[in-house]
Structure formats: structure tokens, C-alpha cells
Design brief:
The protein is mainly alpha-helical and 109 residues long. The protein folds into 2 domains: 36 residues, no CATH class; 57 residues. Helix content is 72%, strand content 0%. The protein is built from 4 helices and no strands.
């Protein structure tokens, strides 16, 4: 059986070349032909905007810090303020809601 190899030539800008090389590095591939062939045949891209995840993490850090402060105060004084508990509950509810929205978006990908 005869083998028929074909070649494809494409022109890319310097910026495109740089982006291709960056993507190859991300994929852990060294051979550009293999990378381009694989992407053309099987590749698909998913770009995730994780800014909302970073915001959830920021809120979790704040909530954890506040909880530690409230626990320290409770240990020192033997009591905790109702407003502090309400504040934690509100932050926790916001975080849970944000995580639910993030999970809904991710499940639709």
C-alpha cells in the first residue's frame, strides 16, 4: 500500500508563533509538528475565568480570620457578640451562593 504524506504550510505572525510555543510548553510537548497535528485533529480549548474562584478564596480567608478572632475573644471573655455571629452567617451564605454559581457554570462545560 502506497503511503501518501501531505504537507501543510501556514504563515503565522511573531505573536502567534510565541503563543503556539507557549501552548506547546503548557502541553509539555517539544515537537511542533506533533503539537499542531494533535491540536488540529483532537484539540479543543477551554478557557476558564477563575476570577470568581479567587474572590471566593478571598472571602474564605476573611471568614477564617474573623472566626479565629471571634474564637479568641470568646476564649478570653467567655462570650461572643450576636452581631459577630450574624456577620459570619452572612459571609458564609454569600460564599455558598457563589460556589453554587461556579459549580453550575462548570457543570455546563
Amino acid at each position: 500500500m502506497a503511503r501518501h504524506d501531505s504537507m501543510i504550510y501556514i504563515r503565522v505572525s511573531k505573536d502567534e508563533w510565541k503563543k503556539i510555543r507557549e501552548r506547546m510548553d503548557e502541553a509539555g510537548m517539544k515537537n511542533m509538528s506533533a503539537f499542531i497535528r494533535r491540536m488540529a485533529l483532537y484539540g479543543y480549548l477551554i478557557r476558564l475565568d477563575l476570577s470568581d474562584v479567587r474572590e471566593v478564596l478571598r472571602l474564605l480567608r476573611i471568614e477564617s480570620n474573623n472566626l479565629n478572632q471571634y474564637a479568641k475573644r470568646a476564649n478570653e471573655t467567655g462570650s461572643i457578640y450576636e452581631a459577630d455571629i450574624k456577620d459570619l452567617q452572612g459571609t458564609h451564605k454569600k460564599i455558598l451562593s457563589m460556589m453554587g454559581e461556579i459549580l453550575d457554570r462548570l457543570s455546563s462545560i
